[in-house]
Specification:
The chain has 9 helices and 14 strands. By secondary structure, it is an alpha+beta fold. It is elongated.
Length: 326
């Protein structure tokens, strides 16, 4: 009930009477009073005025399970929320939870990671009180060959959630980065457990640079944050909830179409390198070409100088702009 009270107070932005809260949730005034008291103890500034009711101060965000639950406008994605002040990695915790029977849609969130990871095992800087780190558990029934496409679906959701939250024109750098003004603001790391062609689970890890921060020297020229891009503070809980809402919508289209056919056009509109020259960094061969979007399997189509179009599979391949990161 606490998250529901919190959601109502935030939505109203004005006083809500104790009587209304009692009627809305079917509880006594004492129960409402206790719930509000618990919210205050967790850091929420809620004022109670006789004959007027309760009002929530919007001064600062109390980032935690209740804040996330109160903003989660989805049917299954992001339910339940597991929140931790510190984790080694949300992906590692989500895999453990999935092995122990956690349901699809479970969202593992941390305020800080001590061993955050990016693609190819790279370290993901994960300080406290600054960014968004979460992992969503999926337990799909589709074929293993479709699993890599789920990463692209999450990329679309992250881009849309970022834009809806703070207006930043977020674009996708295939296959699993989100950029703004040519700099990385979000990374996605999907991992799965497979046995004999059957997917036990997929964990979709997302890290988004939100607050003002200093980046390590090796990435300071190619990384940015939402605070830097939009010039204001951004609610981490609102952002997470918006990404989950977008993911639920896109993922259900993906499942109905059994692939990316229903998302293909929108994905290509979001692709930052679309119709631009790129470098394909393949361990076997590095080459240049024009990015022509993705195919039905989520592979990147690159037109080479001789006019042939090749499909690039994410795997160990990286794609960069000719003169820099994008």
């Amino acid at each position: 009930m606490k998250s529901e009270i919190l959601a109502l107070l935030r939505e109203r932005g004005d006083y809500v009477s104790g009587q209304e809260l009692c009627g809305r949730f079917g509880v006594s005034r004492t129960a409402v009073w206790k719930a509000v008291g618990q919210l205050k103890k967790e850091g929420y500034r809620i004022e109670a005025v006789q004959n007027r009711g309760y009002i929530l101060s919007p001064e600062r965000e109390v980032y935690g399970r209740l804040e996330l639950e109160s903003r989660m406008d989805t049917r299954w994605a992001g339910h339940p929320v597991e929140f931790y002040d510190v984790l080694a990695s949300t992906n590692l915790q989500a895999k453990l939870d999935a092995e122990n029977g956690a349901e699809e849609g479970t969202l593992v969130v941390a305020d800080m990671q001590t061993a955050g990871r990016g693609r190819k095992g790279r370290e993901w800087n994960s300080p406290a009180g600054t960014n968004v780190y979460f992992t969503l558990i999926l337990k799909p029934s589709f074929a293993v060959s479709m699993a890599s496409m789920a990463t692209l679906v999450m990329g679309m959701a992250a881009a849309r959630g970022i834009k809806e939250t703070c207006g930043v024109d977020a674009r996708i750098k295939w296959p699993n980065d989100i950029v703004a003004n040519g700099k990385k603001i979000c990374g996605i790391l999907a991992e799965m457990s497979v046995e004999r062609g059957y997917i036990h689970y997929i964990v979709m890890g997302v890290g988004i640079n939100v607050g003002e921060q200093e980046f390590p020297p090796e990435i300071e020229g190619t990384a940015s944050s939402l605070r830097e891009e939009c010039g204001r503070d951004v609610s981490r809980a609102e952002l997470t909830a918006n990404v989950m809402k977008a993911f639920e919508r896109y993922y259900e289209i993906f499942l109905r179409q059994e692939g990316l056919s229903g998302l293909w056009e929108e994905y290509n509109r979001l692709l930052v390198n679309m119709d631009r020259e790129v470098r394909v960094l393949d361990p076997k061969e590095e080459f240049r070409g024009i990015c022509r979007g993705i195919d039905s399997m989520g592979e990147l189509l690159v037109e080479r100088e001789d006019g042939t179009v090749v499909s690039v599979y994410a795997g160990e391949v990286s794609v960069r702009g000719v003169y820099g990161y994008v």
